[in-house]
From TrEMBL, chains A, B:
Protein name listed in UniProt: HxlR family transcriptional regulator
Keyword line: DNA-binding, Transcription, Transcription regulation
Native organism: Streptomyces cinnamoneus
Keyword Transcription regulation attached: yes
Alphabetical list of PANTHER family matching this protein: TRANSCRIPTIONAL REGULATOR, MARR FAMILY, TRANSCRIPTIONAL REGULATORY PROTEIN
Domain HTH hxlR-type: 27-126
Length: 142, 142
DNA sequence: CTGCATCCGTACGGATACTG
DNA sequence: CAGTATCCGTACGGATGCAG
């Protein structure tokens, strides 16, 4: 192969092909991961998939104690990307509701796929890790 | 709803439900993201999906100039998780080949789904961003 | 070629205090 | 309640040098 990219070494049958037209192309994958790969975004999507939530509700619903700051940031970014809609009711005390947009809802299928794969392979991965860790007692890889 | 979790506020029709049995459960999603959410793992999977590659080949194939250190780390972690198989040919100079395991190959479908979603919604997201950025001239959210 | 060790800058995220 | 502002520690990742 001339200039190395997406090597066609040993094409596997029945395998979806992820095509990167040009070298140095990110195949679109990097995009999604930059958006959902952070610590909290998926959780926001998951919780909002079930329905409209207020700020505090969202914060309580998300597993793992998200800080107020992080929830604000996360939800703002999702809003900026058109995945979440934010509506403010100018009452006292203020009430702000968050919900997924249509595009946001389309994400749900994606997340479901992720969750399914994870759950299906969790045991196998755990096993692989144990084996590897046993074979490599002192390694900083982790 | 008593103690807030996975609120059942406004269930949406025809929407996959991501169930978290217990509060503070990560629904399995965090697992995958911890594994593929980093900067390079997906690329390794994508390139190896096409066939067996040596270290240098892999490095050249991946878009965005991955450092040698990062490629080593990434590939080691994937190996630890049982997603990548590493075979060493004790020659001079050394020759090391990387390939996906069966489980690794099962990831390809997942990645394809990600890529597809990304490409499909890229324009919409770009538009949403422009709108938002215009409406919020001075914001550190980005 | 493949890989480890080391150093170092930055970006991400947590904690806290303060405002409308 | 729903934020904003600030400070601060750490983990991630890049650059470089050395070794089998």
């Amino acid at each position: 192969m001339s200039a190395g990219h997406t090597a066609v070494t040993t094409p596997v049958a029945g395998e979806p092909v992820i095509t990167c037209e040009t070298p140095q192309d990110e195949c679109g994958v990097r995009d999604v991961l930059d958006r959902l790969g952070d610590k909290w975004s998926v959780y926001v999507v998951v919780e909002l998939a079930a329905g409209v939530l207020r700020f505090k509700e969202l914060q309580r619903a998300i597993p793992g104690d998200i800080s107020q700051r992080m929830l604000t940031l996360t939800v703002r970014r999702l809003e900026r990307d058109g995945l979440v809609k934010r509506t403010v009711h100018p009452t006292i005390p203020p009430q702000v509701e968050y919900e997924l947009t249509d595009m946001g809802h389309s994400l749900t299928h994606l997340v479901k796929t992720l969750a399914d794969w994870s759950i299906a392979h969790r045991p196998a991965i755990a096993a692989a890790r144990e084996t590897w860790d046993a074979a490599h007692p002192d390694s900083d890889v982790r």
